[in-house]
Specification:
The structure holds two protein chains of two kinds. Chain A folds into four domains: 225 residues, Pyruvate-ferredoxin Oxidoreductase, domain 3 (3-Layer(aba) Sandwich), CATH 3.40.920; 186 residues, Thiamin diphosphate (ThDP)-binding fold, Pyr/PP domains (Rossmann fold, 3-Layer(aba) Sandwich), CATH 3.40.50; 75 residues, no CATH class; 105 residues, Rossmann fold. Chain A is built from 21 helices and 23 strands. A seven-stranded mixed sheet of chain A has the order 11-10-12-13-15-14-21, sandwiched between helices. A six-stranded mixed sheet of chain A has the order 3-4-2-5-6-7, with helices on both faces. In chain A, helix 3 links the parallel strand 6 and strand 7. In chain A, helix 9 crosses helix 10, helix 9 packs parallel to helix 14 and helix 11 runs parallel beside helix 12. Chain A is globular, with a radius of gyration of 27 Å. Chain B is α/β, with parallel strands linked by helices. In chain B, 30% of the residues lie in helices and 19% in strands. Chain B contains eleven helices and twelve strands. In chain B, the strands form two sheets. In chain B, strands 2-1-3-4-6-5-11-7 form an eight-stranded mixed sheet, with helices on both faces. Chain B has a three-stranded antiparallel sheet with strand order 8-9-10. In chain B, strand 5, helix 6 and strand 6 form a beta-alpha-beta unit. In chain B, helix 2 packs parallel to helix 4 and helix 5 runs antiparallel to helix 9. In chain B, 51% of the residues are buried. The chains are: A alpha/beta, B alpha/beta. Strand 9 of chain A pairs antiparallel with strand 12 of chain B, so a sheet runs across the interface.
C-alpha cells in the first residue's frame, strides 16, 4: 500500500451523496451503509430524494441525496453536517455544499463541470476554479475519464461506462474508510453476477473494474492526506443485518402472524413513502403472508377489516393522505372492536404535500381523525430497526384489546436504515394467548355474547365466522353492550362510548413506564417521540456531558401516555418538545397535563439535527 | 342436523325485520334464503356483508354470520373476508346507492378480480334510507327530493358495467317474480366465481312503481324478457315478440314477421351476447333482460383460489422459514 496517506482513528464520519435523481444515489448510499455495517460500525442513514422519478437532469430540483453517519459507537441520527460530500455534478455541489462542515471534504466529478452544466444551476464561472468552494477540501476527480480508461477495451456504450462512476467512487471511499473490498466485490456479483435475479455479466465486469480503479486511484493519486479508521461499535452481541424501517415493519408483520398462529394479511394501496413496505412484504408468499393490493386506500383498509373479522392478523399500510382516506373504515374497525394494525409512514402534508419528505404531522390525525369519540392506541417507532418492535407490539395490543392500533413511523425512519439485531423466532413473544377466539367447547353451557368483555382489558369475546354454532351479527350501528344487537338506547350509547374510551385509557396501566435519560429532575426536560428520538437522544447526551441540567424522555406509546409521564414532567422547570410539525404532541401534553410545554417546530421535510435541539435547550437554559 | 336438511326458516334470525310493509326486499330475502338452502352450507360457514342503506340491514335478519359495515365498501370488506377464509360462503348485500354511487370502485374491482362472492345488488333506483334522493340508476326525469324538477343524470346499467369488467355470472330479477329471483339466487349461490345478481326492488315509500313497466300484469311481459339457456328469445303477453340479430346488435321483432331460424337462442356462455342483453333498455325499444344473462365459470379462476395457489407455489419454490427470512441479506455477528 502506498504510504501517501496516514490512517487516522475516527469516532464518527458523516457522508452525504448527492447527484441526479435516477443516477443511483440511493443505491450507492445503501451500499456504503451496508459496507460500514458489515465492518462493525454503527450506521444511520437518511435518503432524501425528489418526488419526480427522473427529475430534470443537472438541475437543483432534480438532486437526490443520501446522508449517513457511521461510527464506532451507537449512532442515533444520520448526522448534522457532512464531513464528506460526494457530489456528482454542479447541481449537487450547488445544492449540498452549504451543508458541509467548514473545512469538510467535497469529492466531485470534474468531468461533469462543463460550462453548460454550471451555467444551468446559476454559477457564473466554474466553481471548481473560481474559489467559490474556498473553505472546503475539494477533491475534483475526472471520474468519466478514469472510468472510460479502465473500461477502454470493453465493448459498451460510453453512457453505460459513465454509469460505472458510482462504483469508482465506492472504490475511492472503500480505500478512504479502510473497508474490506471483498464485500463490495461480492455485492457486485450478487447484483449483476451469474447468480443474480437478472444476470448482467458485462455490467458486473465493468463495475468491478471501475471499483478497482477507484481503489487504486485512492492509493496512488496522492490526493488524500489522511484515511479514516473507524473501529467497530460496541453493539449488543448477536446477529445483525442492516435494515430500513419499512423492511423491518414488513418482517414484523410476517413474524407476528407466525407467533399468533393467524394468517398474516395486508390490505393496502401503493403510496410514498410506505410503498417499500408493501414491496418487501409481497415477497413473503412462501411464509403465508397474504397481500392484497386494492383499488384504493379505502379498499385497502376495508379488506383488512374483513380479514380481521374472518380471523386473520390484519394490517393496512399507508402514508398521510392515505390515512385520511382510511378514516371512516378505521372508525368501523374501532366500533366493531376488531384487531387491526394501521401502519402510517408519515410524510410532509397537508394533502399531497411533500410526498418524499419526512414529517410527523399525522399525530393529531391519528388521535382525532375520525367521527365520534374514537380513540385508538398509537405507538411510534423511533428508529429504522425499531419499526420491527413497534409493529410487533402494535399487533400484540391490537389482538389483546381487540382494537385498531396505529403505528406511526415516518419517511425518515421508514426509508432510512441502521443495523438491526435480528431476533430469532423463539425470542419473540408468543402472541397466541392474545388471540383467544371464543369457541363453544371452551364455554360449556354459556351463550355467546359478542360484546361481553374481559373485565381487565375490556376486550370483547371474539368468535370468528366458521365457529360452530355461534353465528351472530355485528355492525357499525351502536350495539347493545352485551348482545351486540343494534341499540339506540341512550344509556347504552353512553356506556359503550365510555367503554371504548376506557379500554384505550386503561392500556396505559400496562404499558412500559417512561424512562428518563439523565437525572430525575432538573431545569429542562426534552420529550421526543418517533423519529425525533435520535436527535434528542444525541443532543441530551451531549448536554449532559457538558454538565447541563437537562434530561430526556422518549414516548414509545404516544397514546395513551405512559402512566408516569405527568409525574416526570412535574419535576422539571421547563419542557421542550421538538417535533416535525407545528406542535401536535405539545398540544396533547398541554391538554393532558396542563403544563406549559415549549414546542420546537420544524417542517422542512428534514429530520432534526442534534445542534438544533442543543441550541434551543441552551436558549431555554439562558445560555 | 345434516346441513342439507336446512330450510328457509332456519336462515331467519330472531331479529324483527324493519323494512316498510310492502317493500320489495322481503321477497328478495326469501330468494336469498332459498339460494343458501340450495348451496347447502351450514349456517355458521356463511357470512353476509352489507354496506349502508335499507337493503344493507339484511344481515341482521339472517341466521348466519353477518357484518353490517359502512357505505359503499361491502365489496372490499367481503373480499377480505373471503380471501382470509375461503371456506366461508360470503354474500354481499348492497343497494344501488351503495354499489353504483359511493361504492362504484369496489363494485368494479371485486367483479374484475372475480372474488368468489355472491353479490346481490338490490336496485330500487332511489336512496330510501335517507328518505328519497335519486341514485345513479334513477331514470332521467325522475322526481325526487334532490331532483324536484327531474333527474338530468344519465342512468347506469350495473350489469352492463359488470360485463365490461369480465363478470363470470350476471343475472337480473324482479321482486314481484319471486320464482325467478329464487332461481337466480340458487344458481348464483352455486356459481364458482363472483355472481352478480341484480334484483329490482320496489320502494313503496319513495319510488313506488319504479319497475311498474316491467311488473304490471298487463304490460310487463311486453317490456321484459325472461332468458333461459338454449331457449328462443321470445317475450310479450302472447310470446308475440322476439329478439333477432341486427348488425352487431339486437332488435325487437314480431314473431309473425321473421322466420323462426332468425329468432335468437339464449346462450348463457356467450359473453358478447351477454353484454348486449345486459344493456337492453325499454327507452331503446328493447325489453329488459331478466334471468341468467351470462354464466361461465370455465374461463376465469377466482381471485381467492389464485391467492392460495400462489402461496403454495411460492412456498414450494422458496419455502423459507421465518428465521431464514429474518436472517436474509448481508448479516454479520457482533
Amino acid at each position: 500500500m502506498a504510504e501517501n496517506a496516514k490512517l487516522t482513528k475516527s469516532e464518527q464520519i458523516v457522508v452525504k451523496f448527492a447527484g441526479d435523481s435516477g443516477d443511483g444515489m440511493q443505491l450507492i448510499g445503501n451500499q456504503l451503509t451496508a459496507l460500514a455495517a458489515l465492518d462493525g460500525n454503527d450506521v444511520n442513514s437518511l435518503p432524501d430524494y425528489p418526488s419526480e422519478i427522473r427529475a430534470p437532469a443537472g438541475t437543483i430540483a432534480g438532486v437526490s441525496g443520501f446522508q449517513m453517519a457511521l461510527g464506532d459507537h451507537k449512532i442515533y441520527t444520520a448526522g448534522d453536517h457532512p464531513d464528506i460530500l460526494v457530489a456528482f455534478n454542479p447541481a449537487a455541489v450547488k445544492h449540498s455544499s452549504k451543508f458541509v462542515k467548514p473545512g469538510g471534504m467535497i469529492i466531485t466529478n470534474s468531468d461533469s463541470f462543463t460550462e453548460k452544466a454550471w451555467t444551468k444551476v446559476g454559477y457564473e464561472s466554474n466553481p471548481l476554479e473560481d474559489g467559490s468552494l474556498k473553505g472546503y477540501d475539494v477533491k475534483a476527480i475526472p471520474m468519466f475519464t478514469l472510468v472510460r480508461e479502465a473500461l477502454a477495451d470493453m465493448d459498451m456504450p460510453t453512457a453505460a461506462k459513465d454509469r460505472c462512476k458510482n462504483f469508482f467512487v465506492m472504490g475511492v471511499l472503500c480505500w478512504l474508510f479502510n473497508k474490506e473490498q471483498q464485500l463490495v466485490l461480492d455485492f457486485i456479483q450478487e447484483k449483476f453476477g451469474p447468480k443474480a435475479k437478472k444476470p448482467l455479466l458485462q455490467v458486473a465486469e465493468a463495475n468491478t473494474r471501475a471499483f478497482k480503479a477507484g481503489l487504486n486511484y485512492g492509493e496512488t493519486a496522492i490526493l488524500f492526506q489522511e484515511r479514516y479508521d473507524l473501529g467497530a461499535a460496541q453493539l449488543e452481541k448477536g446477529l445483525y443485518r442492516n435494515i430500513t424501517g419499512n423492511d423491518a415493519s414488513a418482517l414484523a408483520i410476517a413474524a407476528a402472524g407466525h407467533k399468533s398462529g393467524l394468517q398474516p394479511f395486508i390490505g393496502s394501496y401503493p403510496i410514498t413513502p410506505a410503498t417499500d413496505l408493501l414491496h418487501y412484504a409481497s415477497e413473503f408468499k412462501d411464509l403465508g403472508l397474504v397481500t392484497m393490493q386494492m383499488e384504493d386506500e379505502i379498499a385497502g383498509i376495508c379488506c383488512a377489516v374483513g380479514a380481521a373479522y374472518a380471523g386473520n392478523l390484519a394490517f393496512t399500510t399507508t402514508s398521510g393522505p392515505g390515512l385520511s382516506l382510511k378514516t371512516e373504515a378505521a372508525g368501523m374497525a374501532l366500533i366493531l372492536e376488531l384487531p387491526l394494525v394501521i401502519i402510517n409512514v408519515q410524510r410532509g402534508g397537508p394533502s399531497t404535500g411533500l410526498p418524499t419528505k419526512t414529517e410527523q404531522s399525522d399525530l393529531l390525525q391519528s388521535m382525532f381523525g375520525r367521527n365520534g369519540d374514537s380513540y385508538m392506541p398509537i405507538i411510534a417507532a423511533n428508529s429504522p430497526a425499531d419499526c420491527f418492535d413497534a409493529t410487533y407490539q402494535g399487533a400484540k395490543i391490537a389482538l389483546q384489546y381487540r382494537t385498531p392500533v396505529i403505528v406511526l413511523t415516518d419517511g425518515y425512519i421508514g426509508q432510512g436504515s441502521c443495523p438491526w439485531k435480528v431476533p430469532t423466532m423463539d425470542e419473540l413473544e408468543d402472541l397466541t394467548p392474545y388471540v383467544n377466539f371464543w369457541k363453544p367447547e371452551d364455554h360449556p353451557g354459556e351463550t355467546y355474547q359478542p360484546y361481553k368483555r374481559d373485565p381487565e382489558t375490556l376486550a370483547r369475546d371474539w368468535a370468528i365466522p366458521g365457529t360452530k354454532g355461534v353465528q351472530h351479527r355485528i355492525g357499525t350501528l351502536e350495539k347493545d353492550a352485551l348482545t351486540g344487537a343494534v341499540s339506540h338506547d341512550p344509556m347504552n350509547h353512553q356506556i359503550m362510548t365510555e367503554t371504548r374510551t376506557n379500554k384505550v385509557n386503561n392500556l396505559a396501566a400496562v404499558l412500559p413506564q417512561a424512562e428518563i435519560n439523565g437525572k430525575d429532575s432538573g431545569k429542562v426536560l426534552v420529550i421526543s417521540w418517533g423519529g425525533t428520538y435520535g436527535a434528542v437522544k444525541g443532543a441530551v447526551d451531549r448536554l449532559i456531558e457538558e454538565g447541563k441540567s437537562v434530561s430526556g424522555v422518549n414516548l414509545r406509546w404516544v397514546w395513551p401516555f405512559p402512566p408516569n409521564l405527568g409525574d416526570i414532567i412535574s419535576r422539571f422547570d421547563k419542557v421542550l418538545v421538538p417535533e416535525l410539525n407545528m406542535g401536535q404532541l405539545s398540544l396533547l401534553l398541554r391538554a393532558k397535563f396542563l403544563v406549559d410545554v415549549e414546542s420546537l417546530s420544524k417542517v422542512q421535510g428534514d429530520p432534526f439535527r442534534e445542534f438544533e435541539v442543543i441550541d434551543k435547550v441552551n436558549e431555554m437554559l439562558g445560555e | 342436523m345434516a346441513d342439507t336438511q336446512l330450510t328457509k326458516k332456519d336462515f331467519a334470525s330472531d331479529a324483527e325485520v324493519k323494512w316498510c310493509p310492502g317493500c320489495g326486499d322481503y321477497a328478495i330475502m326469501n330468494a336469498v334464503r332459498e339460494g343458501m338452502v340450495a348451496a347447502g352450507k351450514p349456517r355458521d360457514e356463511v357470512a353476509i356483508v352489507s354496506g349502508i342503506g335499507c337493503s344493507s340491514r339484511f344481515p341482521y335478519y339472517m341466521e348466519t354470520y353477518g357484518l353490517h359495515t359502512i357505505h359503499g365498501r361491502a365489496a372490499a370488506i367481503a373480499s377480505g373476508v373471503k380471501v382470509a377464509n375461503p371456506k366461508l360462503d360470503v354474500w354481499v348485500i348492497s343497494g344501488d346507492g351503495d354499489s353504483t354511487a359511493i361504492g362504484g370502485n369496489h363494485f368494479m374491482h371485486a367483479i374484475r378480480r372475480n372474488v368468489n362472492l355472491k353479490y346481490v345488488l338490490i336496485n330500487n333506483k332511489i336512496y330510501g334510507l335517507t328518505k328519497g334522493q335519486y341514485s345513479p340508476t334513477s331514470e332521467m326525469g325522475q322526481r325526487s327530493k334532490t331532483s324536484p324538477y327531474g333527474v338530468i343524470d344519465y342512468p347506469m346499467t350495473p350489469l352492463k358495467v359488470a360485463m365490461g369488467l369480465g363478470a363470470t355470472f350476471i343475472a337480473r330479477g324482479l321482486d314481484s317474480i319471486m320464482k325467478l329471483s329464487s332461481e337466480i339466487c340458487i344458481r348464483g349461490a352455486k356459481h364458482h366465481g363472483l355472481s352478480m345478481m341484480e334484483i329490482f326492488s320496489n320502494c313503496v315509500i319513495y319510488n313506488d312503481g319504479a319497475h311498474k313497466q316491467l311488473s304490471s300484469k298487463e304490460e310487463g311481459p311486453n317490456h321484459r324478457i325472461i332468458l333461459r339457456h338454449g331457449e328462443k328469445m321470445l317475450f310479450g303477453t302472447e310470446d308475440q315478440f322476439c329478439l333477432v340479430q341486427d348488425g352487431f346488435g339486437i332488435k325487437k321483432a314480431n314473431v309473425a314477421d321473421v322466420s323462426e331460424a332468425d329468432i335468437l337462442v339464449h346462450d348463457e356462455k356467450n359473453a358478447e351476447l351477454g353484454a348486449l342483453l345486459a344493456g337492453m333498455r325499454p327507452d331503446a325499444g328493447l325489453p329488459v333482460a331478466l334471468g341468467i344473462i351470462y354464466a361461465d365459470e370455465s374461463k376465469k379462476k377466482t381471485y381467492d383460489d389464485m391467492v392460495y395457489e400462489q402461496l403454495a407455489e411460492v412456498k414450494a419454490k422458496r419455502g423459507r422459514t421465518m428465521d431464514q427470512l429474518l436472517q436474509e441479506g448481508h448479516t454479520w455477528t457482533v
